[in-house]
Amino acid sequence: MNSVQMTLYNILLTIFFLTFNSCEGQNNSQTRQGETVEIGIMVPDLDKTIWAIYQDKSSNYWFGSKENGIFFYNGQQIKQMTVKDGLVSNAIRGFQEDAAGNIFIETERGVSKFDGRTFKTLQVAPPGYFTNEWVLNPDDLWFRMGAGSNGPYRFDGKYLHFLKLPQSPQEAEFKSKNKNTSVRPYGLYTIYKDRKGIMWFGTASLGICRFDGKTLSWHYEEQLQTTPEGGDFGTRAIFEDKEGEFWINNTRFRYNLKPDSSININFQKEDGIGYLDERNKKEFPFFLSITEDKEGNLWMATYDNGVWKYNGKELIHYPVRDGATDVLLFTIFKDNKGVLWLGSHNAGVYKFNGESFEKMFEK
């Protein structure tokens, strides 16, 4: 083979390997926007009860319903996926994605992993396999698996490890006031990872437990748990803003964390922000979900009072209605382009158009 033939051979060989690797990479990756998954059935609309929203790295949207499975939207079509397709449960509570593009679906009965083609149920570590091992690895995923467990599940890439929360300083007082033994005060309402990778766990009745990799610490305040109407709100939302300060459940205070290794989280409280209601009384909205836009504004979704935006100076109210009916909100999500989405209990999904939240996917 002469030099010209050798050069041509090398060029053709390079093209072959580039083409092969490109095709192989596409086969192993998540579906791209505009493509669809092979499983599930085509549907014209979403469920009315959407409790979780996520957009993956390939720009596909995942909507999790209260009890009717997943609604997958690729920008063109909607597909519904349920236990008939391999999901462990139809009660969807959250989505996460790992570095390889696998989607993890948290449900009331377990966690399903979707690799682009099929669902696989994650296995809980067998008894005695690193039982109750509290460690903090950057690639681990954390799940609630329902609000009734007395601690989180940590996924290390192989097994789910159940980690029991330590005793709260508030437990004795809670038990003295609540004789109903069926109530699970340690049940998790939310799990939050802050900018440093530290884990925060919001419980049903005992406030917050925080794990920094070494120490498990607690924080409880009556004003964070009890609404003005007297109901027990639980700890449903924790968020670290661009200035590194934390917002928990409502806007009465924001919290500046101080390093400490004691059993109690060491916070410095600063005044938050309120609004005047129709009686000219100052109120502080309780929110179930919170996010931050590209400009650093905070957006807080309440259950029955729309969305509140905090721009650093004031609270701005965005009512959300389905005709004449107030929409009961559950979650707010910022997608890959910074667009805000809302999931609700009674009216499906809403999207922010720059001025208001408009209903999406109407038939």
TrEMBL record:
This is Two-component regulator propeller domain-containing protein. InterPro entries: Reg_prop, WD40/YVTN_repeat-like_dom_sf. It comes from the Bacteria. Gene3D superfamilies: YVTN repeat-like/Quinoprotein amine dehydrogenase.
